[in-house]
Amino acid sequence: MPPMILLAPSLALATKPTSPIWWKFMHLCLFLHWTARSSQMAPFRYQFFITPFMTCPRSEEVQKESSISLIPRSGGIATIAHSVNNWEDAAHSARKGIKHSACVEVLSLNPYTTGTTSSVAAFVVLLLMVATALYLSLKTRYNEEIHLKVEMFLKTYGTSKPTRYTFSEVKKIARRFKVKVGQGGFGSVYRGELPNGVPVAVKMLENSEGEGDEFINEVATIGRIHHANIVRLLGFCSEGTRRALIYEYMPNDSLEKYVFSHDSDTSQEVLVPSKMLDIAIGIARGMEYLHQGCNQRILHFDIKPNNILLDYNFSPKISDFGLAKLCARDQSIVTLTAARGTMGYIAPELYSRNFGEISYKSDVYSFGMLVLEMVSGRRNSDPSVESQNVVYFPEWIYEQVNSGQDLALGREMTQEEKETVRQLAIVALWCIQWNPKNRPSMTKVVNMLTGRLQNLQVPPKPFLSTDSYPVL
């Protein structure tokens, strides 16, 4: 069998298979086929695999990638006309989270039958040139699309947009990226300072080719809203493949650092029940503003402890709007082609429409899971533990609350603190009802947390029934 020729290792396609670039590439394959036949050289068969698959980088959001390689196979010659339909099926399956492969068979030359190594070498060089040209073409096209989106955003929102900086200005603001304060799948976060002395956090998107849409999404949503419980986007940079987001600096990091302090080697300040309640109310008010207070309703789709930042006074601010979706304020149902968010916080209806329609109530579910983690100090899922030995997390909370037991926080609590924890748990259990219709709105959640709704009742088990019933 001839050695494998790698066309483009882990090349992530930035355009759709039906785009002009895709067809140009297919025409090149046909040209190579014709060249091999006209040269009267005995061909052997290569298989060109295009494999869409689902990955979960950065906050485990769902994204699509593709990888391309030429793999030799023995056998006769086959056509490539069927490949496009196969790809469409594969892409459709990928949107549903199903692994699928489509193949395109491309003719190459058999070095064992041509008798001349120079012809084979020339053909290999040609393949490499095609791969390089394709990659550069895709990359250039993708960057142009992002540039056009940025310019369209600037034109649409005018003076309400955040400040745009050049990359050289960003380097000065970030002090040449000397003080790193965070790292994730999206890239790195550095501490910096604006020319007026205001401290900022500079997020550099290192995986820029895969973050383009999220970058535009973040700038277009958070860039034009202002609320005490939503982190402010002060500026951004989009210069070629270099993209950065500049936020107000949050000195106390994320809520995750304190909710799961036992996971860390360093001792962190433990959140007392009264502080938990304040944080929960702040998050709820920020979400209420996103759902009801903006000109367009903003659905976050990634509410979790890591995306809640804390300022000097431990006031919470919602961050990371890369997966957010905008819709009309009177639009109660939205359409998504695939689930989005982080495992453990994604509402059931995002996986299956049998649970109900996707709406702002999907964010309510995520909020409920966050609050349950906060009052218990436990993660809602732990992949390191065998599932058969672990009680379903919300069920464990439900049994504790329904039986009147106190949720153990690892320390002695006053009666008032116990009641606060119970109140938080009950509200959270209402928020994670499997049927979206049974979940309260964030306005009602704020009222429940601030005591405006008296005599909170424990809801039915949230994970056993999808029937609809009155919400408190």
From TrEMBL:
Keyword Signal: yes
Domain Protein kinase: 175-464
A cellular component annotation (GO) from this entry: membrane
The organism's place on the tree of life at top rank: Eukaryota
Pfam families attached to this UniProt entry: PK_Tyr_Ser-Thr
Topological type in the membrane: Single-pass type I membrane protein
Family membership: Belongs to the protein kinase superfamily.
Name the record gives this protein: Os01g0117500 protein
Species the sequence originates in: Oryza sativa subsp. japonica (Rice)
